[in-house]
C-alpha cells in the first residue's frame, strides 16, 4: 500500500475512533447530566497523539456548553472537529516522485503549488528534492497552510501561507554540535576500503580522494603499507548525526613523501600554506557589468512586505552576455523553471556549488566538466524578471552565501600576516592525531 493511502486510511480510522471515544465518554455519563464539553474535547488530542496524528487544539468555544449533551450533539462536535483542526501529513519522498505528482495525490490545489514554487524561486529547494527527504504538509479546512521540507536533521525549509499574498519561506538551519573524530589507518587494499576499515565513510574517502587528486593518484601511486591520518568534524543534533561533515585535516604518507591538506578559513592548504584547491573567481561576468542587486537574506517584498530573501547577486547584463564558470566543476543541472527561467547549476567539488539564472542559452550539458573561466551560457531575461540580468548564486554545503564576500578559495597561498595563526592551527591538528596514538 502506498504511503499516501496509508495516511488517508490512518486519518479515516482516526476520525472513526475519535467519534467513538466521544460516544463512549457520553455513554459513561449519567443521562441528563450537565457535561463540560470543553473537558470532553480536551480528552481528544491524547487519543490523536497515540495515533501519530498531530492536532493542535484551537480555542474551542463550544455552543453546547451548559446544554444537555446528546448523541447528536457529540456527533456534530466530532464533525466540527474534523473540519477545524489542522491536519498534518508526513510524506517521505520516493524515487520518481515529482512535487506536482505529490500535490495531486494528496488532493492539494495547483494554486498553492504555484504559490509555493513562486517563493521557492529564492531558494530552489523544492527543485532538488531527493528520495528519503520528508515533506510535512499542514492543511486547515481544505487549504494548505504550511509546508516543511526536511533536507536533513539540521536543515529545513518552511513555507508558510500568508493568506491571499501567497507564501513566505524560512530556512531553518541548526548549528547543532560539531564533534571532531580522528582516524589513523594503513593502506591494505584500495584507499576507500582501507579508509572504511579505519572508520571513515565512503563519502569522506571520496572527498579526500577528490581533494588531493592533483597531488596523488589514488589508484596508481598508493602502496600497501602507506599510512594516513584524518580529522573529521561531524554534525550532531542531540545524539543523532545529521549527515553533514567536514574533513578538517588529512595527511598521507606515500612511501617516502607526505601529502597533506588542512582546512583553514574555508580553504584547504598544504603544510607549506599553499592552496590545494583550484581557486574561484568572484564574478561570473566581465567587470564592466555593474551589480544591480546585492545578496540580501533580509529583503522584503516592496508591495506585500513578505520576506523575499535575495540569495544571489544580480549583474546588469544585456541579453546574450557571456556567462563564465567561476570555478572548476561538473554541470549538475540545466533546467527550465517557471520563475528562475533557464538556469544552470555547477557542482564545484563537494563543498561548493554555483547557479546561474534567467539565461537565454546554455552552452553546456548536464554531466559536462567545466573549467574556471569557461563560457557556459549566455545571459537572458527568462523566468520572472523585471528586466534582463544575470542572477548568480554561490552555495556552501547547500546554503547560499554572499558570493562577493564569502570565504572561498580565492588566494593561492596563506597571507604573510596569517602565517603564525596558520602554523598554530596546524599544530592543533597534529596534536589531535598524537593524542590518538598514545
Ligand atoms: Zn537576483
TrEMBL record:
Gene Ontology biological-process entries: proteolysis
PROSITE patterns with a match to the protein in the record: LYSM
- Looking at the keywords, is Transferase present? no
What's a Pfam family in this record?
Csd3_N2
* Primary location: other
Matching InterPro entries: Cell_wall_metabolism_enzyme (IPR050570), Csd3_N2 (IPR045834), Dup_hybrid_motif (IPR011055), LysM (IPR018392), M23ase_b-sheet_dom (IPR016047)
The cofactors required by this protein are: Zn(2+)
Chain ranges of the LysM domain: 89-137
A single GO cellular-component term from the record reads: cell envelope
* Keywords associated with the record: Hydrolase, Membrane, Metal-binding, Metalloprotease, Protease, Transmembrane, Transmembrane helix, Zinc
* GO MF, one example: metal ion binding
**Segments crossing the lipid bilayer:** 12-32
Q: Where in the cell is the protein located?
A: Cell envelope
What's the protein here called? Peptidoglycan DD-metalloendopeptidase family protein
Question: In which organism is this protein found?
Answer: Moritella marina ATCC 15381
Amino acid at each position: 500500500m502506498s504511503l499516501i493511502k496509508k495516511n488517508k486510511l490512518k486519518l479515516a480510522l482516526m476520525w472513526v475512533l475519535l467519534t467513538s471515544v466521544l460516544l463512549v465518554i457520553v455513554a459513561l455519563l449519567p443521562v441528563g447530566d450537565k457535561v463540560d464539553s470543553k473537558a470532553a474535547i480536551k480528552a481528544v488530542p491524547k487519543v490523536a497523539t497515540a495515533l501519530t496524528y498531530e492536532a493542535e487544539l484551537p480555542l474551542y468555544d463550544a455552543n453546547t456548553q451548559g446544554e444537555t449533551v446528546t448523541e447528536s450533539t457529540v456527533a456534530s462536535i466530532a464533525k466540527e472537529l474534523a473540519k477545524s483542526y489542522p491536519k498534518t501529513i508526513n510524506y517521505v519522498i520516493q524515487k520518481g516522485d515529482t512535487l506536482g505528482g505529490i500535490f495531486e495525490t494528496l488532493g492539494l490545489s495547483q494554486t498553492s503549488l504555484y504559490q509555493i514554487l513562486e517563493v521557492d524561486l529564492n531558494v530552489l529547494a523544492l527543485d532538488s528534492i531527493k528520495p528519503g527527504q520528508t515533506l510535512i504538509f499542514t492543511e486547515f479546512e481544505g487549504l494548505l497552510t504550511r509546508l516543511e521540507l526536511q533536507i536533513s536533521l539540521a536543515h529545513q525549509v518552511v513555507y508558510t501561507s500568508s493568506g491571499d499574498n501567497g507564501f513566505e519561506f524560512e530556512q531553518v538551519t541548526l548549528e547543532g554540535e560539531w564533534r571532531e573524530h580522528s582516524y589513523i589507518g594503513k593502506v591494505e587494499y584500495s584507499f576507500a576500503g582501507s579508509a572504511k576499515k579505519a572508520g571513515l565513510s565512503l563519502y569522506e574517502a571520496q572527498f579526500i580522494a577528490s581533494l588531493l587528486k592533483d597531488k596523488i593518484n589514488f589508484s596508481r601511486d598508493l602502496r600497501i603499507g602507506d599510512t594516513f591520518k584524518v580529522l573529521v568534524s561531524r554534525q550532531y543534533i542531540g545524539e543523532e548525526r545529521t549527515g553533514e561533515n567536514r574533513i578538517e585535516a588529512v595527511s598521507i604518507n606515500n612511501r617516502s613523501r607526505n601529502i597533506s591538506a588542512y582546512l583553514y578559513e574555508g580553504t584547504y592548504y598544504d603544510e607549506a600554506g599553499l592552496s590545494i584547491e583550484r581557486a574561484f573567481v568572484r564574478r561570473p561576468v566581465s567587470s564592466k557589468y555593474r551589480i544591480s542587486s546585492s545578496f540580501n537574506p533580509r529583503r522584503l517584498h516592496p508591495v506585500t512586505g513578505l520576506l523575499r530573501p535575495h540569495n544571489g547577486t544580480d549583474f546588469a547584463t544585456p541579453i546574450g552576455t557571456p556567462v563564465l564558470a567561476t570555478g572548476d566543476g561538473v554541470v549538475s543541472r540545466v533546467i527550465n523553471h517557471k520563475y528562475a527561467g533557464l538556469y544552470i547549476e555547477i557542482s564545484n567539488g563537494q563543498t561548493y556549488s554555483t547557479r546561474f539564472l534567467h539565461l537565454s542559452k546554455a552552452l553546456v550539458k548536464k554531466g559536462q566538466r567545466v573549467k574556471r573561466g569557461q563560457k557556459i551560457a549566455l545571459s537572458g531575461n527568462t523566468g520572472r524578471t523585471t528586466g534582463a540580468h544575470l542572477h548568480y548564486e554561490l552555495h556552501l554545503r547547500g546554503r547560499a552565501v554572499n558570493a562577493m564576500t564569502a570565504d572561498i578559495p580565492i588566494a593561492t597561498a596563506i597571507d604573510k600576516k596569517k602565517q603564525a595563526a596558520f602554523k598554530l592551527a596546524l599544530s592543533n591538528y597534529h596534536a589531535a592525531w598524537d593524542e590518538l596514538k598514545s
